[in-house]
């Protein structure tokens, strides 16, 4: 899994460990949870990812489940958004997922079994002022999952998208209380999700119970983006 050292990514890694999986996470800095193998990788660099995958394969065996979670934001309104602001977010969030999936697919095709899970966002389908770059990158993951399903679905490989809404993380905790209250007022559930609630859906998608689900977008957003 990419980006497993904090936030939702760390919670996903912990959930897979609790379910008895062997887990490897990539991180540009910091460490994944205890029990996971942490490898260094930059998702914008294919050679770096190839090296990380080889390290994981040598230590743990073939990669059967890949979770593309690494992502960045550079929020600003359209007329202030530089090309670099746009390109770097799309290259990390969308291009990074493409590079991860392309490298993982080699082993999955050989095994004729695999689970690809892409971590998107409610923003990818709902939209968000000041996040044209981020929303574009996250909605693009739907195209990857659905095209991948058509390409590799007959080989025992599924590809799905999980679209979290507002999550209780260090980032949301730093928001002013009135901002948090405003966000909560838009969510039918009336609260933010825990990172564990997202992680549990990801682990379920990786298991046998979800073997006939592919090309789906599964929202974990308390009803915020329903209809999308």
Helix content: 40-55%
Which structural class is indicated by helix and strand composition? alpha/beta
Rg calculated over all Cα atoms: 17 Å
Main sheet: which strands, in order across?
3-4-5-6
Parts with pLDDT < 50 across at least 5 consecutive residues = none
Number of strands: 6
The name of the CATH superfamily reads NAD(P)-binding Rossmann-like Domain
- List the domain count as a whole number: 1
The CATH architecture is 3-Layer(aba) Sandwich
Counting DSSP H or I runs of 4 or more residues, the number of helices is 8
Terminus-to-terminus distance: 26 Å
H/E topology pattern: HEEHEHEHHEHHHE
Overall shape: it is globular
Topology-level CATH name: Rossmann fold
Structure overview:
46% of the residues lie in helices and 13% in strands. The protein has 228 residues and is of the alpha/beta class. The protein has one domain (7-220): Rossmann fold, CATH 3.40.50.720. The strands form two sheets. Strands 3-4-5-6 form a four-stranded parallel sheet, with helices on both faces. Strands 1-2 form a two-stranded parallel ribbon. Helix 1 (7-18) packs across helix 8, helix 2 (46-60) runs parallel beside helix 3 (83-111) and helix 3 packs parallel to helix 5. The longest helix has 29 residues, at 83-111. The model has no long low-confidence stretch (mean pLDDT 95).
